[in-house]
Amino acid sequence: MKTLTIAGRDFSSRLFLGTGKFSSNRLMKEAIAASGTQMVTMAMKRVELEDKEDDLLTHIITPSIQLLPNTSGVRTAQEAVFAAKMAREAFGTNWLKLEIHPDPKYLLPDSIETLKATEELVKLGFVVLPYCQADPTLCKHLEEAGAATVMPLGAPIGTNKGLRTLDFLKIIIEQANVPVIVDAGIGAPSHAAQAMELGADACLVNTAIAVAADPVEMAIAFKEAVIAGRRAYEAGLGAVSSDFTASASSPLTAFLNN
Amino acid sequence: MFSEELEKISWKETTEKIFAKKDSDVRRALAKENCDVEDFMALISPAAQPYLEQMAFLSRKYTQERFGKTMSMFIPLYLTNSCTNSCVYCGFHISNPMARTILTPEQMEDEFKAIKKLGPFENLLMVTGENPVKAGVPYLAKALDIAKKYFANLKIEVMPLKAEEYAELVTHGLNGVICFQETYNRERYKIYHPRGMKSNFEWRVNGFDRMGMAGVHSIGMGVLIGLEEWHTDVTMMAYHLRYLRKKYWRTKYSVNFPRMRPAENGGFTPNVIMSDKELAQLTFAMRIFDHDVDISYSTRETPEFRDNMATLGVTTMSAESKTEPGGYYTYPQALEQFHVSDERTALQVTSKLKELGIEPVWKDWDSSFDCYLK
After folding, report:
1. Cα A150–A29–A23 angle (5° rounding)?
2. Of the N and C termini of chain A, which has fewer Cβ atoms inside 10 Å?
3. pLDDT tens track for A144-195
4. Mean pLDDT, 10 residues at a time, over chain B (374 residues)?
5. What does DSSP say about strands A95-98 and A9-11: parallel, antiparallel, or unpaired?
6. Nearest CA to CA, how far is B307 from chain A (Å)?
7. What pLDDT score does B94 carry?
8. Rounded to an integer, what distance in angstroms lies between the CA atom of residue A82 and that of residue A156?
9. In the β-sheet with A202-205, what is the strand arrangement from edge to edge?
10. What residue spans of chain A are helical by DSSP H?
């Protein structure tokens, strides 16, 4: 399996985890370990920034894991830039998962504000991984603005519905010059495998692991699914069954035999 | 720049790979919605020959999905045959003792008016040799200014320019640029292009990046079939097309597969001959590989072949072309760059297309859009 590189850092695991919704921090820690992930995102708003012994943070930090603070909760580019600066200060990393969702119900990313914030944060030296709509044109704009990856959604966040944006994800993957991380909506290991088979560079999973009856087992299932999907992609998938036998009559190409 | 990408791809290994493609590789490619360059290699390989009918079917399907049952019509005008290069296969090369012509602005007007009498052409392709002193950027700017009065969409096929020169021509109404790499075989390129600016492989192959950077709307690519192993050359072009698409995503792309004809300069014998069957296979393969790319057939091809391919993947055609400067009005008897095989009038070509259920599209752009480019 090829190594994934984002902003100069190598990742041998292509599964990234979110840290919300776990029933306990202890369980979260075990799930992170079981998943083999090397990058974990956490909402800055959930961490007690002044407290070095913050319970959530102490359960995440290990040397092999890249911390990816996210701006969940902000509603505008301006708020996002402010939150990003706070996060850089508090966590000592310039990596940032940019999330701007002014709508508190579906938490759908705001394309216009996300692009604005990306442009500004890149100028400020951040490694920006923007969560975004599965909009191919937006993804090209984000790429041109200097985003380190794009993170299009598979389905509305937390819905476990899988790759509802399939056709658009395909176009994004086809066009991208930066890694494509499918984020949001992945509800089952088969969804993650499907994304990887399409050629996505990585998946970010949270809810499906956090709310599983056994999050640790589920983390292992996702780990294996992501590996299987990636391996299949690199190996070259076989033909879907279709009847491509040469036919005796050739109405379209008979003229070539004259 | 693409020259750096090209360094990573071995000509020899690519050739071996293409000829090693198996039946299963072809079937896998045919079953895929999005083919990569490896699939393209399978589709142009000898292993795909038994699948021509299936390829034609898919090519027609994708073409109709994206382009409908239409054919975009264009006409070329050669502005000059003056050229400082000495491409060994070209009748216009510098040491050929022939009369050289550079159309004056008045003559251009005459040509444009004469073209308009042939049919309602709105897509014009202006072609020159490479003579930066006598037919450089100021000359092209002037030609575009005049042509814009007659045609909605202007393309040029000239020597590679600097990015800022392309950008300047865009402000004069330039919509598209066509440039043929001729061959992607870096070692052999020099043999065909021994002197002049054109002998610089990198400058030519990176010209497409410069067009992209300059924001040219439409980029046309091509390799000259007859120089090197065509399978390998078109595969390199497929890599190039994918590279450009990813990088300059606002641009439209077109491809051409010009088959070499005996030139007028005493004759360069093509090293490679591509049959009709192979050109058809390549056309289908290109469409299956890239559903959106404009595939253009010139009057180099015969009427029968053009008519048959018109429903199977080709999306742009020229008609009633003259390949000598001033050929429509000023110098109807001058030396042509290549021999035209389809000598039908524009009216005859388009009547035949209509009979085949294809609508000829003359105008697909409005020059009023160009004011925003300035």
Report:
1. 95
2. C
3. 999 999 999 999 988 889 999 999 999 999 999 999 999 999 999 999 999 9
4. 96 98 94 92 97 95 90 95 87 83 94 95 94 92 96 95 96 95 95 90 97 95 95 98 94 94 67 93 98 95 95 96 90 70 93 93 81 60
5. unpaired
6. 11
7. 85
8. 26
9. A151-152, A127-132, A95-98, A66-70, A39-43, A15-18, A202-205, A181-183
10. 25-35, 55-60, 77-91, 111-123, 136-145, 166-175, 189-198, 207-210, 215-235
* B277 domain-assigned: no
Please report whether residue B10 resides in a domain.
Answer: no
Q: Where are the beta strands (DSSP E) in A1-65?
A: 4-6, 9-11, 15-18, 39-43
Q: Which of residues 223-242 of A touch B (CB under 8 A)?
A: 236-242
> Which residues, at least 6 apart from A229, have a Cβ–Cβ distance to it below 8 Å?
A192, A193, A194, A195, A196, A197
Residues 146-185 of A with CB under 8 A from B: 170, 174-177
Closest alpha carbon to B151 in B371, B362, B373: B362
Report the CATH number at residue B177: 3.20.20.70
Whether A45 is catalytic is: no
The pair of structure tokens assigned to B179 is 């440039």
Q: What is each CA distance from A182 to A12, B21, B66, in whole angstroms?
A: 17, 33, 28
* B50 lies in some domain: no
Q: For residue B1, count other CB atoms closer than 10 A to its CB.
A: 15
Record: contact B276-A239, CB cut-off 8 A: no
Q: Which two tokens stand for residue B342?
A: 């389809």
Domain limits at B264?
66-228+243-271+290-373
Candidates A29, A97, A116, A223; catalytic one? A97
Are B53 and A242 an interchain contact pair (Cβ–Cβ within 8 Å)? no
Tens of pLDDT along A119-132? 999 999 999 999 99
What predicted TM-score, i.e. pTM, was given to this entire model? Answer: 0.84
For residue B156, give the amino acid letter.
Answer: I
Residue type, A18: G
Distance CA B353, CA B355 (A): 5
**Domain total of chain A:** 1
CB B65 within 8 A of CB B33: no
Q: Identify the domain containing residue A23 by its residue range.
A: 4-257
Q: How many domains does chain B have?
A: 1
The Cα–Cα gap between B175 and B180 comes to 17
